[in-house]
Each structure stands twice: as C-alpha cells, then as structure tokens.
C-alpha cells in the first residue's frame, strides 16, 4: 500500500468561482458584503434601513438568500434598487455558484455596493467563500451574548459585528459589554457597531463604515 | 447539514483520482479539517459513507485529522494553539493576535493499494 500526497482544498470548485467573482468585483470597484446571522437577527431590516437611508447616488444592489419564499426580495423591492432573491431550495447556505447565477439575473453591472444576504444560519455560511470583500455578522440583543463563543468560525471570518435591536436593551438581560468582549476574544480585530433598525439609531455610523470600505476598494483598483 | 455538500466535493475529487489510477484500489482518504472550519468530522464521515454506499468506492474510509486553531502574535512572532477561545499571546501577553490556521478543509493524501 502506498500513500499519495494530494494537498487539495475540499471546496476547490466553490473557491475557484469565488475567486473569479472577487476579481470581477475588484476590477469594477464593487464593494461586496456578505451578511450572515441566525434567523431573525435583522439582516433584511438592516438592508431596509440601508436602502432607505443610503444616498441615492450610491448604487446599491442586493442578492438575498433564503431556503424558500421571495418574501425578502418583495420587502426590499420598493426602494428602487436592483434586488434578486436566491432561493436555495433546502440548502442552508449560499455558495459561489448561486451568487454567480444571481448576479447574472440582477440586470445591472453598475453597482457600487452589493449586499449578499446569506441564509439565516451562523454555521454553514462561514465555510463558503462568495467572493465578497468581507463578511459581516448581524447579532441581536434578543440572542445570547455568548454567540461569538458558540459560533467562532463565523466571527473569526467577519470584519464587523452589527449589534442590532439595541432599542430593546432595557427589556432583555443582554450584557452588551460581555458580547463585545466575547466577539473580541474570538476575533481581536473585529469592528463592532450598535444599531437599531427599528429606531434608526446607529444607521449613520453603519453607512460611514460602508463608505469607508468602499473608499478602500476604490483606492485599491481605480475605476 | 452542509457536510453533505462537502462530502460530495470530496467524492468528486476521489472519483477523479481513482480513474487516474487503473489497476489500483483506493483504501482511504486523508483529510485535514480545522476546528474553525465549521465542519463536524462525524457528520462528514456519515455523509461520505452514505454517498459511497453501493458504489465501487464503498470500501474507502476517511481519515480525518482535526487541526487546532493557531494564532500568531504580531509583536513577538510566537505561534500558539488557542485554547478555550483565549487569543492572548502566552509569551508577551498581546491580545490582538491573528489567526494563521485552523479553518482549513483539505484533502491531504490518498492511501492506494494494488488492484
């Protein structure tokens, strides 16, 4: 019996497509953000706030993933930006191929910021590169502050935690400083923003964070 | 539950490698699955066995090495395994250390036997 060395990434096909998507985004200076959270943390609400309050000149588009229904695309359509639903039909995450197909149906290439709203799940989406510039975790104060410790893979790979529903802090036992500590413990370099998608608190800071990232993308590869 | 898709990717690679080696038999596949990969080795093995059942590749086993989460200290360059989520450098106490490995999912080797 002999041992043959292989050294190959398990998800090489996904990573190949994600690599192609990433270089396409870079060459067109598109900032692509992959939003990940457990179901009900407020990814779609954050997108509603973003589409409502981001400057009209910022060309924004959304690919929104769910196992079933096009409810999220319907919620986001009234804002007048390009929005497409990706229905995975059972899969618990988006993969690069679904994003590639979704992009081709979006109907426009003139995009400054592309949001990819992943399937609500804090585990599986972490394993699949979608060609994004960065992953963002939405965590809400109605969840446990130990989520970063329970789902480290997602938090390690994310650049930002959007801590949502802070208007509910007076009513829930959520310890916000411990949540911050846990996120930093898993990923010392992670940024944290506190927002309420109901009251709009913190949304301006969120917009500034996105604009700063967009500047970085534009500087890296001028259009 | 995404382990099924991952098992299927592994099987694609394994089947292609088996085709390249006529007259031999694949015995096992060596994998390195990081602690932070988000993949459960037990679930992955279960899914892989479900996929190969009843095929020519039925006898192949998965040998899964679980690789630890390793960080590197930007101040003193020490690399260390992160235990109990604590990213603090054991040498100099720096907190902001960076991930260097532990999120990988790799096929490392194949064990091949004659016919």
Task: Give a brief outline of the structure.
The complex is a heterodimer of chains A (223) and B (115). Chain A has 223 residues and is α/β, with parallel strands linked by helices.
- Name the chain pair whose interface involves the most residues: A-B, 35 and 36 residues
- Tally of helical runs of chain B: 2
In total, how many beta strands of chain A? 8
The ordered H/E elements of chain A are EHEHEHEHEEHHEHEH
Remind me, CATH topology of chain A? Rossmann fold
How much helix, percentage-wise, in residues of chain A? 25-40%
Q: Describe the global form of chain A.
A: globular
**Class by SSE composition of chain A:** alpha/beta
Physical arrangement of strands within the biggest beta sheet of chain B: 2-1-6
What does this structure look like?
The complex is a heterodimer of chains A (223) and B (115). Chain A has 223 residues and is an alpha/beta fold. Helix content of chain A is 37%, strand content 22%. Chain A has helices at residues 12-27, 43-53, 71-76, 96-105, 147-150, 152-157, 176-186, 203-220, and strands at 2-9, 31-36, 60-66, 82-87, 113-117, 134-140, 158-164, 191-194. In chain A, strands 4-3-5-2-6-7-8 form a seven-stranded parallel sheet, sandwiched between helices. The longest helix of chain A is centred in the C-terminal third of the chain and has 18 residues, at 203-220. The mean pLDDT of chain A is 94. Chain B has helices at 3-20, 41-52; strands at residues 24-34, 61-67, 70-72, 79-81, 98-101, 105-114. In chain B, helix 1 crosses helix 2. The interface between A and B is large, with 35 and 36 residues. Strand 1 of chain A pairs antiparallel with strand 6 of chain B, so a sheet runs across the interface.
């Amino acid at each position: 019996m002999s041992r043959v060395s292989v050294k190959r990434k398990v998800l090489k096909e996904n990573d190949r497509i994600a690599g192609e998507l990433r270089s396409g985004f870079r060459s067109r200076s598109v900032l692509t953000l992959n939003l990940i959270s457990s179901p009900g943390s407020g990814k779609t609400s954050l997108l509603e706030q973003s589409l409502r309050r981001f400057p009209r000149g910022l060309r924004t588009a959304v690919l929104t993933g769910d196992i079933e229904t096009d409810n999220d695309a319907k919620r986001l359509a009234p804002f007048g930006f390009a929005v497409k639903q990706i229905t995975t039909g059972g899969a618990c995450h988006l993969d690069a191929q679904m994003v590639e197909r979704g992009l081709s149906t979006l109907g426009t290439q003139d995009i400054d910021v592309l949001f990819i709203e992943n399937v609500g799940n804090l585990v599986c989406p972490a394993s699949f590169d979608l060609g994004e510039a960065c992953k963002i975790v939405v965590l809400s104060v109605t969840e446990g502050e130990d989520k970063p410790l329970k789902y480290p893979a997602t938090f390690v790979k994310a650049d930002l935690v959007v801590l949502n529903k802070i208007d509910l802090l007076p009513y829930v036992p959520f310890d916000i400083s411990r949540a911050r500590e846990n996120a930093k413990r898993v990923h010392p370099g992670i940024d944290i923003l506190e927002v309420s998608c109901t009251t709009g608190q913190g949304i301006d800071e969120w917009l500034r964070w996105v604009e700063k990232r967009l500047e970085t993308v534009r500087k890296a590869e001028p259009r | 539950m995404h382990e099924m898709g991952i098992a299927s990717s592994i099987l694609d690679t394994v089947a292609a490698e088996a085709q390249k080696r006529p007259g031999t038999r694949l015995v096992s596949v060596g994998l390195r699955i990081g602690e932070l990969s988000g993949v459960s080795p037990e679930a992955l093995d279960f899914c892989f066995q479900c996929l190969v059942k009843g095929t020519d590749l039925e006898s192949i086993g998965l040998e899964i090495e679980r690789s630890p989460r390793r960080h590197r200290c930007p101040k003193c360059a020490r690399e260390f395994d992160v235990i109990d989520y604590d990213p603090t450098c054991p040498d100099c106490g720096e907190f902001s250390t960076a991930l260097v490995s532990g999120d990988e999912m790799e096929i490392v080797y194949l064990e091949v036997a004659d016919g």
